[in-house]
Amino acid sequence: MSHSPSADVSVRIAWADDAEAVAAVQVRAWQEMYAGVVPAGALPIDPAALVPAWRQSLARPTDARHRVLVALERNRVVGFALTGPAEDPDCDPVADGALAEMTLDPAERGKGHGSRLLQAAVDTLVADRFTRAVTWLLASDDDQRRFLTEAGWAADGAHRELDLDGSGRTTVKQVRLHTAIG
């Protein structure tokens, strides 16, 4: 009996017990994504420091439309996506949903997890009755931009400088992409 590769991969809503795995993926991905963009000391290096916040947000989301999805290979978390209402001042929080973050473990890229996670995130936003989705990404992240534009997203002209630590010394330039959904 043969197993198709897709039988061992899935996407589901995250559980509070996923906090450690999500934090570990986030730390590994951020170390790579922000390398050379922000000072090394500005990034979390110990996933344990992020676990309490993840556990809290997974157990008790602030809004019913705030969701965390995890991409799985067998029962191992290999990525996650955050969806919810768009919070930008020029967005309508009823019609506009946000893909607040979509992060894959760097070692798991190129295996289809990103496409499954993006599709599940969009399906979740549609189920939550949003008709447009927006997401922010590093202006320098050509791979993520290419991935999203190939999936039908496009720049909407919005850009910002994000202050990562509140000091004004560690900033990154971001661009916003959007797509019609539903």
Structural write-up:
Strands 1-2-3-4-5-7-6 form a 7-stranded mixed sheet, with helices on both faces. It has 4 helices and 7 strands, in the order βααβββαβαββ. By secondary structure, it is α+β, with helices and mostly antiparallel strands. α1 crosses α2 (51-59). Residues 1-5 have low confidence and may be disordered.
Relevant terms:
182 residues, 7 strands, disordered N terminus, alpha+beta, 32% strand, 4 helices, 7-stranded mixed beta sheet
Task: Summarize the model shown.
The chain is of the alpha+beta class. The chain contains 4 helices and 7 strands, in the order E-H-H-E-E-E-H-E-H-E-E. The model is unreliable at 1-5 (pLDDT under 50).
H/I helix tally? 4
Task: List how many beta strands DSSP finds.
Answer: 7
Q: Secondary-structure element sequence? A: EHHEEEHEHEE
As a percent range, the share of strand residues is: 25-35%
Gyration radius (Cα, Å) is: 16 Å
- Biggest sheet: strand arrangement: 1-2-3-4-5-7-6
- Structural class by helix and strand composition: alpha+beta
Percentage of residues in helical conformation: 25-40%
